[in-house]
């Protein structure tokens, strides 16, 4: 027959909760398997090391998310063991530190973060004494990882944790690493640094026997353990299923006195681990948060699709353009759309207007480059009767007045003369202007969208575009990328354009062959989407069947293989040739103006003349 203690051990080990009993002196009498699991005492590690003690010259690696919280009361004084003497490091700071134990002259490496300045992660990657070491404190997922020569030592935590790895001074091999249950085993960072012996790890290592030990040896301190001890001594405290934190673990505890013949002989503590529940709840909250983000993103994508059905393209670049355009549509700010000819700037401007607060009011499109300069002022601002020879006897409203309450789209704004830029600046500043030959100030409430295929910053530097006007129109800039920068949009563009082209030329719907599509993908597209429309229209006219073949496309694509056969050169020689070519082109563009050429090339005077001499360029 089993003895009484045998029955107690068998019965308590069958429990699904942790169960601890101490006598009136605080000595542990019962500590079941579940309690050992909860507090890491029965934790089996896969990486083995022998029992031992830290020695002079050992390499110490520390990752601590809050100094002094759950690391054996680590402090700046203890950090001096590894050469760190920094009075700025305070309790509660997170720290990553690597140093040599009790050896002077070897500089430690470390970084720390104040609790009030916490970011998502604190990380360090370095080679220390020839050893590759990486440490990451992940404050979001609550994990600290120390990596030594690609071997990872990971510790998860609930609130606070002090993680540590020690490498042998002579061999640089693993000598000690921190694991769950270090508080119960007396193996916190501070204790190890102060010379406390540590236990062996591995599948065959002996488990810590807690029976017969004082409760404070295993759980150090904390209000719950103090209450537990005080009840065992005779204090009348008891509770059922209360939230308590023990050794940093969130638990639900039941505390009961143990009496015999009306005399207090100890206390019992039932512990239920709720860290898993908290983890599940956290994962649920994260999942809900991610779901909300996904739903928001889907709503945004749906809104973009509905807002811009005529802006074709699902590339990353075009999706970004559409997101910006949707944001621009919801404001009254001046928008500047930039991009090469044929990228669809006018289409985007119209879409911004149609999705904005002024969508029910006029949208006036003015192509500033198509109107003669002598007429542009009167077209924009209107004129009074008799303002000039040939003027209408009743005068005329200008585009700005016609756009009142709505949007005026100034296409190719870079073509406006300097004199007219001054008057345009007044409209942007005051939303008012005078007609040609007029004395009465006309006030307007409208939105301005401008577009250009020119680099206005360069135009401004060259003195062809007013700086104050540039900053007035560049409030909400949107850059439309060229077609060659988003070739993945070619197929959806072809699918959208081809039926319209077939209808326009009066033929049955045609499809495009894979070979022809491949040719389109290889082409450089200097004319962008407008050129694609023209090429497809010509191809629809040229193709005899209902399929457009590559021979129907009037484009030429360079033979890349031939180019490589002819042009392959050593990299240094190819670089020199290209550099010489660019310098000559820039000098030709600026008609030999060396100062402007240096500025455009962004090189110093000395470098410029050295290259001129090296490449024998005539200037």
Automatic annotation (TrEMBL):
One of its GO terms (biological process) is regulation of DNA-templated transcription. InterPro entries: AAA+_ATPase (IPR003593), AAA_lid_NorR (IPR058031), Homeodomain-like_sf (IPR009057), HTH_Fis (IPR002197), P-loop_NTPase (IPR027417), PAS-like_dom_sf (IPR035965), Sigma_54_int (IPR002078), Sigma_54_int_dom_ATP-bd_1 (IPR025662). GO terms for molecular function: ATP binding; sequence-specific DNA binding. The keyword Transport does not apply. PANTHER family: C4-DICARBOXYLATE TRANSPORT TRANSCRIPTIONAL REGULATORY PROTEIN DCTD (PTHR32071:SF57), TRANSCRIPTIONAL REGULATORY PROTEIN (PTHR32071). Keywords: ATP-binding, Coiled coil, DNA-binding, Nucleotide-binding, Transcription, Transcription regulation. Residues 277-304 form a coiled coil. This is AAA domain-containing protein. The lineage of its organism: Bacteria, Bacillati, Bacillota, Tissierellia, Tissierellales. Residues 311-541 form the Sigma-54 factor interaction domain. It comes from Anaerosalibacter bizertensis. The keyword Manganese does not apply. Pfam families: AAA_lid_14, HTH_8, Sigma54_activat. Transmembrane segments: none annotated. It comes from the Bacteria.
């Amino acid at each position: 027959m089993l003895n009484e203690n045998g029955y107690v051990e068998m019965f308590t080990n069958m429990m699904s909760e942790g169960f601890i009993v101490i006598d009136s002196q605080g000595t542990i009498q019962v500590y079941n398997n579940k309690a050992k699991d909860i507090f890491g005492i029965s934790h089996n590690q896969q990486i083995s090391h022998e029992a031992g003690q830290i020695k002079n010259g050992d390499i110490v690696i520390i990752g601590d998310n809050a100094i002094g919280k759950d690391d054996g009361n680590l402090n700046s004084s203890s950090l001096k063991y590894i050469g760190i003497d920094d009075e700025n490091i305070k309790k509660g700071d997170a720290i990553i530190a690597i140093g040599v134990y009790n050896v002077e002259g070897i500089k430690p490496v470390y970084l720390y973060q104040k609790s009030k300045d916490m970011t998502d992660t604190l990380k360090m990657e370095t080679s220390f004494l020839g050893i590759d070491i990486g440490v990451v404190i992940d404050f979001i997922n609550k994990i600290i990882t120390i990596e030594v020569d690609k071997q990872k030592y990971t510790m998860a935590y609930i609130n606070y944790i002090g993680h540590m790895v020690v490498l042998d001074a002579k061999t640089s091999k693993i000598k000690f690493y921190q694991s769950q249950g270090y508080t119960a085993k007396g193996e916190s960072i501070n204790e190890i640094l102060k010379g406390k012996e540590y236990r062996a790890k591995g599948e065959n290592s002996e488990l810590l026997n807690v029976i017969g030990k004082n409760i404070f040896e295993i759980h150090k301190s904390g209000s719950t353990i103090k209450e537990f001890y005080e009840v065992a001594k005779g204090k009348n405290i008891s509770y059922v299923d209360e939230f308590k934190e023990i050794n940093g673990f969130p638990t639900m505890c039941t505390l009961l006195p143990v009496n015999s013949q009306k005399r207090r002989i100890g206390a019992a503590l039932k512990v239920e681990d709720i860290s898993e529940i908290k983890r599940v709840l956290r994962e649920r909250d994260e999942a809900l948060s991610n779901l909300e983000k996904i739903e928001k993103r889907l709503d945004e994508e749906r809104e973009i699709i509905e807002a811009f059905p005529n802006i074709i393209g699902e590339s990353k670049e075009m999706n970004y353009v559409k997101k910006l355009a949707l944001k621009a549509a919801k404001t009254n700010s001046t928008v500047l759309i930039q991009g090469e000819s044929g990228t669809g700037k006018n289409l985007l401007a119209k879409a911004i207007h149609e999705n904005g607060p002024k969508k029910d009011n006029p949208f006036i499109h003015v192509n500033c480059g198509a109107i003669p300069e002598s007429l542009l002022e009167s077209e924009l601002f209107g004129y009074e009767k008799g303002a000039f020879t040939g003027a209408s006897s009743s005068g005329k409203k200008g585009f700005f007045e016609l756009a009142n309450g709505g949007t005026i789209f100034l296409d190719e704004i870079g073509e406006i003369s300097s004199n007219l830029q001054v008057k345009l600046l007044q409209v942007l500043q005051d939303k008012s202007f005078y007609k040609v030959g007029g004395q009465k100030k006309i006030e307007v409430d409208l939105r301005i969208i401008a577009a250009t295929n020119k680099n206005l910053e360069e135009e401004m530097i060259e003195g062809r575009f007013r700086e104050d006007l540039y900053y007035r129109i560049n409030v909400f800039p949107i850059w439309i990328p060229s077609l060659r920068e988003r070739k993945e949009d070619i197929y959806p563009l072809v699918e959208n354009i081809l039926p319209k082209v077939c209808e326009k030329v009066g033929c049955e719907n045609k499809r495009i062959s894979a070979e022809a599509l491949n040719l389109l993908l290889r082409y450089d597209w200097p004319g962008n989407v407008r050129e694609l429309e023209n090429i497809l229209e010509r191809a629809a006219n040229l193709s005899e069947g209902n399929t457009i073949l590559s021979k129907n496309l009037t484009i030429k694509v360079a033979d890349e293989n031939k180019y490589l056969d002819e042009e392959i050169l050593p990299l240094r020689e190819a670089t020199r040739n290209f550099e010489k070519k660019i310098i000559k082109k820039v000098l030709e563009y600026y008609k030999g103006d060396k100062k402007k050429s240096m500025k455009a090339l962004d090189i110093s005077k000395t470098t410029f003349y050295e290259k001129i001499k090296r490449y024998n360029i005539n200037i």
